[in-house]
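Ticket 4471: requesting a sanity check on a complex prediction with pyridoxal-5'-phosphate. Repro inputs:
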Amino acid sequence: MHKQPDGNNNITAVAADHENVWHHLSNHSAYEEMAPMVIVEGSGLRVTDANGKKYLDAVSGGLWTVNVGYGRERIARAVYDQLLKMHFFSQTAGNVPAALFAEKLLQKMPGMGRVYYSNSGSEANEKAYKLVRQIAAKKYNGKKHKILFRERDYHGTTITALSSTGQYERKNQYGPFTPGFVEIPHCLEYRSQWGEIPDYGIKAALEMEKVILREGPDTVGAVVLEPITAGGGVITPPRGYWKTIQEICNKYNVLLHIDEVVCGLGRTGKWFGYQHYDIQPDIVTMAKGVASGYAAISCTVTTEEIFDIFKGDTTDRMGYFRDVSTYGGCAAGPAAALENMRIIEEENLLQNATVQGAYFNQRLHELKHKHQVIGDVRGMGLFQGLELVIDRDSKQPVEESYVMQVAAHCLANGVLIGRTNRSFREFNNTIALSPALIATRDDIDEIVDALDAAFAEIKL
Ligand SMILES: Cc1ncc(COP(=O)(O)O)c(C=O)c1O
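Returned structure tokens:
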């Protein structure tokens, strides 16, 4: 039996959704008894479902995306104007917003030189992997083709992006995977692989050197890392980690590819997550917050040095980057991205993410004092996480079903929260919190209060 929602116009949409749409990451047997949620409106940090119920969205569109919030008229207008004027032409030629956004973006990324457009985070990462493979072919007889990735990180949904993903449950049943991707250990100190040690961050980074030496430095072309791991459990790298990673990359001539798909465009209080750590990447990929979801866009940004490798001799038929992305030529993406970036600047949203993020973190630590189930609080800016455990001493993770109940309780109280979802069999125990960068103290309090009520009510 389908439960019909109240309201009139939206009833048809809910029924149509229920009958026809296959939802992402969803077990549809749950929808035998009730219709999936359909979101019909958004404004600022709030969304409304088809029943007319309003929610504070504490996870920016479910996936860390809506950085500047819902209902931004000026983005809609910029996209509208651009669509009428010139909506699409292959990126073999240029378009005005793509040119202007690339210029503006690179001003925020010292040391980077070129922007390559496509339309999803997975695709941006695939481009980066292709660059690495082609550099290996051009400079190293194909030998330096391996790409390292880290346990717990996620880099996308396509088979090769999954091949570089360190989340076993997410990958399970989708193999065989693309060869040449090699895992390095995670850097989550709370779940230290070596017990309590000083300088955990340096030790975790040095593990990468061991893997490079085992594989052979002449076979390793790049490493791809999230600056702060998102879906793998909101993991802020420990002190010393990034500096050591950079040193190892330099030592073995391994390109450093940072996946900013979640952290990019202000989420952590700087334009990019890596900018907290005084490092210089060779490749940076981004999507989600680039246009806050108002249009599909992703970017693979490289240094001028990498770009130059692909210039070469005009008679070399194989020498340039022989890649194309049809929708990389949609002008709506960069038109939205330009306005999105202007909004972040004009409304000082980096500053807001820093200030409100610090307040959020402090409130979550207060919550930890109150509720034993919170084992660890992690995060930076408006990107925070709570790892839930059955027992603080043993750190035994709670079951995923417990986290689902907490999320359902918050939902019933009008707050949408995120959680690690089918990433690992045993570690689907982190709550992810990432409201839009416009969040106020009151919004943060509302999120924390909803969590407080849920933890008080739902017993282990
Ligand atoms: C860090 C990271 N990289 C890449 C992706 C893939 O992005 P998309 O879903 O746009 O392909 C995601 C998506 O959640 C992500 O979190």
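Notes from triage: Residues 1-5 have pLDDT under 50 and may be disordered. Leaving this open until the requester confirms.
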